[in-house]
Amino acid sequence: MDPLPNPAPLASKLWNTLVRYHSIEDGEWRVAKKTKDATVWRKPSEEFSGYLYKAQGVVEDVTNRIVDHIRPGPYRLDWDSLMASMDIMETFEENCCVMRYTTAGQLWNIIAPREFVDFSYTTSYEDGLLTCGISLDYGEVRPNFVRGFNHPCGWFCVPLKDSPGHSLLTGYIQTELRGMLPQSAVDTAMSSTLANFYSDLKKAL
């Protein structure tokens, strides 16, 4: 188990990585799923053998309120059907923490519940906010859970210029679920989970 990292350089590296993902040309992405609430694309990840997913949709609300529902905190458990539990293990500053959370089983429990320990960082980006995270090898792995790993992930939330009461929410997710899983099952689950994330978030707001 690693000691906790120094938050400042980790936050800075994470920010740079997410901004780089955000500038990837449209032509590099392939559409994975489209719903009325969101479009999900994917491309091979540079971090591991799976995919980097990009999800995007317009959400009717102001950026601060949307990000408050996404980042670690009391709102998230209320509406995110995938998240089964969440504990803040360490708080560095108001916008920086380490959290442990567990996810529910997926695909008729082909994908068993997972546990993650993530460093989370929320900061301003353009006229809106970026909330991002990366998994850490920290804390004991609890029995009955497979420990998953999130490579750099994040959500950019910026107000629409011509409609300030609406925000464009763009997420970048690359989750290594680990354990013995067929990659095709993981890919199906990821696209659907990201599309559902938008419809669940809209209902919650």
UniProtKB/TrEMBL annotation:
<dbReference type="InterPro" id="IPR002913">
    <property type="entry name" value="START_lipid-bd_dom"/>
</dbReference>
<dbReference type="GO" id="GO:0015485">
    <property type="term" value="F:cholesterol binding"/>
</dbReference>
<dbReference type="GO" id="GO:0070508">
    <property type="term" value="P:cholesterol import"/>
</dbReference>
<dbReference type="GO" id="GO:0005829">
    <property type="term" value="C:cytosol"/>
</dbReference>
<dbReference type="GO" id="GO:0032367">
    <property type="term" value="P:intracellular cholesterol transport"/>
</dbReference>
<dbReference type="InterPro" id="IPR042555">
    <property type="entry name" value="StarD4"/>
</dbReference>
<dbReference type="GO" id="GO:0010879">
    <property type="term" value="P:cholesterol transport involved in cholesterol storage"/>
</dbReference>
<protein>
    <submittedName>
        <fullName>STAR4 protein</fullName>
    </submittedName>
</protein>
<dbReference type="GO" id="GO:0120020">
    <property type="term" value="F:cholesterol transfer activity"/>
</dbReference>
<feature type="domain" description="START">
    <location>
        <begin position="10"/>
        <end position="205"/>
    </location>
</feature>
<dbReference type="InterPro" id="IPR023393">
    <property type="entry name" value="START-like_dom_sf"/>
</dbReference>
<dbReference type="Pfam" id="PF01852">
    <property type="entry name" value="START"/>
</dbReference>
<dbReference type="GO" id="GO:0005783">
    <property type="term" value="C:endoplasmic reticulum"/>
</dbReference>
